[in-house]
Amino acid sequence: KKYVYQFGAGKADGDRTMRELLGGKGANLAEMSRTGLPVPPGMTITTETCDQYYKNNQKWPEGLKEQIREGIRFQEEQLGAGFGDPENPLLLSVRSGAAASMPGMMDTVLNLGMNDMVAEGLAERTGNEWFAFDSYRRFIDMFSDVVMGIPHESFESAMQKLKDQRGVKEDNELTAKDLRDLVDRFKAIYRRETGFMFPNDPMEQLEFSINAVFGSWNSERAKKYRKINKITGLIGTAVNIQAMVFGNMGETSGSGVLFTRDPNTGENKLYGEYLTNAQGEDVVAGTRTPEPIKNLKKALPKVYDQLEEMTRKLEKAYQNMQDIEFTIQEEKLFILQTRNGKRTGPAAIKIAVDFVKEGIVNKQEAVKNLVTTAQLDQLLHPQFDDKAIKDKKVIGVGLPASPGAAVGKVYFTSHDAEDAKITGENVILARVETSPDDVGGMHASEGIITSRGGMTSHAAVVARGWGKPCVVGCDDIVINYKNKSLTDGNHTVYEGDWLSINGTTGEVVLGQLPLKPPKLSNDFKKFMKWVDEFRDMKVRTNADRAEDATKAKEFGAEGIGLCRTEHMFFEGERIVEVRRMIMSDNEKERRESLARLLPYQKEDFLGLFKALDGDPVTIRLLDPPLHEFLPHTEDEKKDLAKQFGISYRKVKDRVAALDEANPMLGHRGCRLGITFPEITEMQTRAILEAAIEAKEQGAVVLPEIMVPLIGSGDELIDQKNVIKETAEKVFKDKGTRIDYLIGTMIEVPRAALVADEIAPHADFFSFGTNDLTQMTFGFSRDDIGKFLPDYLERKIVLHDPFQTLDQKGVGKLVAEAADLGRATKPGLKLGICGEHGGDPESIAFCYKQGLDYVSCSPFRVPIARLAAAQEAI
Ligand code: ADP
Ligand code: MG
Ligand code: MG
């Protein structure tokens, strides 16, 4: 069995399609090697090997060791060096890499193969004693930390002590002799902590390191990262063992990281940082402050040009913006890693549009691959309303690491942030710097601020990936973990105080700043036009008011999929008439109240029809139980009695009479219209009179009347008769006719099961997946919070079923109803109007079921459009 895949010398056993087996890093190293890019030779131990290792009681499978030795022989040949040979030593890096990118989750060991003899040999051969012992001390530090779990700080502080003794500030001001000294001190720490001598044998070092990488796959922080990012179904990590190249060989050497375009704005320029005379870990670790990549242009212009050329090649090969790690060894450039770069929403749009312009991808590829629905979501998030801010107190300005505005209460530990989030607070996480242990708290926060670190620090990279506003390296403020506060010297902010951060400008501001909706760029509009070229499922919106509908139309909505009429009942004067109607104990009084409500309803519908001009408007008849409209406190009940000139006792009795044990399963939906047909009559009249008026005013109207909570054909027939009779009266009164549709929600499981009995009487079905989920699971939407966290934790459900449609159960009902409905009535129009209509995964499902449209809240309309297009491509 093949456990090991080699790469190097312009060839490779693997390629970039083999992520599952070789991990992202391994697959890309193989690909780059094939493409002829300068990659040091190496080998990748497969993810299957990691899986077998765990299944096999943490032992290596038969044959693995021999294949590794073979891989080392290949590298030795390539470099003319020998593993453990002091004359001309081959040193190795041992790197983890799973199929999904998990930044910083698993650890790397560099300079492996070092021992006293090898270090002396390397010093002699290169004539660079400093370099040899710098590499040696790094190896002991990393091996101890990664493999033996000795905290890195022990070595850090030993180094600091030595620097203090020598009176120097930077690591590379230490002399070669100092570094020899440091190696001895490090070995002593190792002996003290483990009780063993530091291992001399390179092969032993390698075995230990490989096992440590396997082990890191199941570390707590790796598991947590996978959970938060919903990474499931991976079998393990691959291990990359690669010949070292050295960035710490002097002033013409160095290491860096870069994005091929600006990951915040998408601007077409190299964006990154590097350090001279350093190994790559230093750039990420933040021990020395890196320089911006543009300085390399002056320092080593040839290398810079080569880097630029290489990035173009990579973008073409991968058809995506790349995130690259590189090392320069004595003016020679090596690429050590490439992957698709994380970026913000605005950057994703700009890069997609530019890539098409530059001919790197076509429109279809851009829509399918270069912008995710989550990135689009970011563009639709609010920003600070600068005009509404009078005197904002800026207490610090840091690096704008991830754009957008965030307001929340500040917390100082990941744990506190997570706890605060659970109680429903908006949280800002403040840390000196973040590490992978903080991802839980970062995820729970609206925004993140750190007082240390650069644009590629952990906080910056993770926040950008999630689209959370983030300010890093804000050294104007001092964070004090002990008393949980931060200060700029003048103002002190304590745990739980409000703070606002602007990830676009880097500002940190006291208090709660007001927010405003975002402004959409021309690139956004262009991109969304392409999206619509590849989309064939319609997207409508859920809106009750003309202004929301207008907003949604701007976002590209092609109609209203759900107008909830009861929302209008609460506004202003109307609630009085609604209550009067409910209080009346005979039909005559009820009709009088309804007659007074009619003009209000009509006015609302008129606004909607005019706003939607040419697009369909689905209006749902009254749905909630009447109880919801009545007052609940004694004082309010007394006021109501006075207002209507009736006795308090009567009010109390009426409220009590309407009280239900299970209102959501009670007297609501079509059941109201069946008991009180006059309500259905009034609403039908309001809808159709408004439609006629809008038409007379020049609008094209397509009214669709929707009956909620149908569970049988006969229920629909009953309501349909009321609607049709009323319609005929309206047409007669007005002396004109218009076309309209009558349809039903499918939201009671029984309706889905007998859809063939309902379809003959319906012009359309609209899946009300909120109620359908509630009734299929028997989970009350309002009470699920009590047990859902346990269900998610124990994987009894994988998602909140009210957010992402449960395809197995609820989805089966949707599919069944769609099939039965269409079989009975070919061409029956099908849509969905539950919250799921704005969830990309659920939208993909709807597309597969052949639904005609999804309907979602206005701000999710662009997301639904993109999700539908990506599914269609
Ligand atoms: P991560 O997944 O955390 O980015 P990597 O495996 O990419 O870890 O290693 C981190 C850094 O170690 C790299 O960016 C690079 O600078 C350095 N490194 C890895 N392999 C080599 C190598 N063969 N030669 C020199 N430096 C290396
Ligand atoms: Mg890396
Ligand atoms: Mg419903």
TrEMBL record:
The cross-references to Pfam families, in alphabetical order and at most eight, read: PEP-utilizers, PEP-utilizers_C, PPDK_N
Q: Where is the active site?
A: 458, 833
Presence of the UniProt keyword Metal-binding in the record: yes
> What are the alphabetically sorted keywords of the record?
ATP-binding, Coiled coil, Kinase, Magnesium, Metal-binding, Nucleotide-binding, Pyruvate, Transferase
- Domain (PEP-utilising enzyme C-terminal): residue spans on this chain: 521-871
State the reactions this protein catalyses.
pyruvate + phosphate + ATP = phosphoenolpyruvate + AMP + diphosphate + H(+)
Q: Which SUPFAM superfamilies match?
A: Glutathione synthetase ATP-binding domain-like, Phosphoenolpyruvate/pyruvate domain, Phosphohistidine domain
Locate the residues binding substrate.
Answer: 564, 620, 747, 768-771
Cofactor list: Mg(2+)
Q: GO MF terms on file?
A: ATP binding; kinase activity; metal ion binding; pyruvate, phosphate dikinase activity
Q: Boundaries of each Pyruvate phosphate dikinase AMP/ATP-binding domain copy?
A: 64-298, 305-350
Q: What is its EC number?
A: 2.7.9.1
What residue stretches are annotated with the PEP-utilising enzyme mobile domain? 425-506
Please tell me where Mg(2+) binds in this chain: 747, 771
Coiled coil start-end: 293-327
Role, per record? Catalyzes the reversible phosphorylation of pyruvate and phosphate.
Q: Identify the NCBIfam families for this entry.
A: PRK05878.1, pyru_phos_dikin
The similarity annotation says: Belongs to the PEP-utilizing enzyme family.
**Protein name per UniProt:** Pyruvate, phosphate dikinase
Organism listed in the record: Natronogracilivirga saccharolytica
